[in-house]
Give the backbone structure.
Amino acid sequence: MSSSTALSGRGSRLAALVVGLCWLAVLFDGLDMFIYGSVLPHMLEQKALGITPGQAGDLGSYATFGMLVGALTAGTVADRIGRKKLMVCCVALFSLASGLCAVAGSVTVFGLGRTIAGVGLGGLLPTAISMVTDYARGGRGALTVGALMTAHHAGGILSAYVAKWLVEAVGWRAAFWVCVVPLLFVPVLAKAMPESLSFLVAKGRADEARELAARYEVELPAAPARKEGADRWAALAGLFRGGEWTQTLLYWLASFGGLLLVYGVATWLPTLMRGEGYNLGSALTFVVLFNLGGIVGMLVAGRASDRFGAPRISAIWFALTAAGVFLLSVHMPLALTFTVVFLTGVFLNSAQTMIYATVSLRSSPGNRATAVGWTSGMGRFGAVFGPWLGGQLLAADHGSWGFTAFALAGVSSMVFIGIAALRTPKRPAPSGSHQDLLAAS
């Protein structure tokens, strides 16, 4: 039996319910994640809270550091309280933290709010992915997860419109008050979302699992054979045995550069485009196009990788991303700039995902989750570094170098994943689930 719960008859209703609720939760996650970058140009112009470019970069890194903490602890917390409760807590946490940002009277309080929000944001996404994977219809796990990931970019698009409609008319605080609205979704999520069947079975709550399975006419997943801490450490050690350590380090370095690029651009794109002479409306339109590209990229990259190979596509995608990001430092006709931003969004977001695909496909089934999880974890340090780097460049009056620095990060990831692609894997990867690859992004 596959890791996804097999559905039949009315079971498709359950899948639709879970995917729909998770999609909305991840939409709010994306809104909260991208809202800071969307309002940042206005905050810097108005010197809101006395913020400087250097502090702005630090604040962007606070959120991504919180995401690192949330992502690393999500699995352990979910194992204790359940995936449903963790999702409810995460949505409530980043919504309340946005309220703290909205009322903040100092950079310190605002930074605390962004850090707390980051913890909720980082914990929600992997948990939501686990939930939709658990209830995905047989054979459609990867497609379901890919569809879920579009919600994150849809949230980025929504953040740009929230900033465009509210910030200049009402002020930057109004945008963060909008990010408190998902708090109204918390009771809906708590009432309508079923608990993960896999969690119920693993915890021995057989009666609850059978009642839920009978209500929606689904099959119960098999109980896990074992789950021991020693096994996890043995799986981690396996990533460095023999010649595997070089491959592992290449994946980690590629992921570091990839997420530095993803979160650096996500945080600083509107501000850097303002610095290139575009007005605020155009700068926010770039955010919309960038995230539209991300949605298209998520739906296209998997098919291209299945045909030509994930590491090859990842390397090519990073090369195209680096070229696109560098071109943004050149003042071009507006229509051409819009096109470059859209294509950069297509390649950038899915290039990082294809790193996870490469790791997943080249790992043994027993080590796959560990390999993908640690590749993602090491990459998260790049996610922390990217926003900080952009802030330091602006603070030193080298904002024009921002796009160049991010382009170089793309080149580095292209080199590392390219070298990994040239190395023949020591063991053939069996045809297994592709669901792990998106769970880390």
Q: What stands out?
A: The CA atoms of residues 144 and 334 lie 35 Å apart.
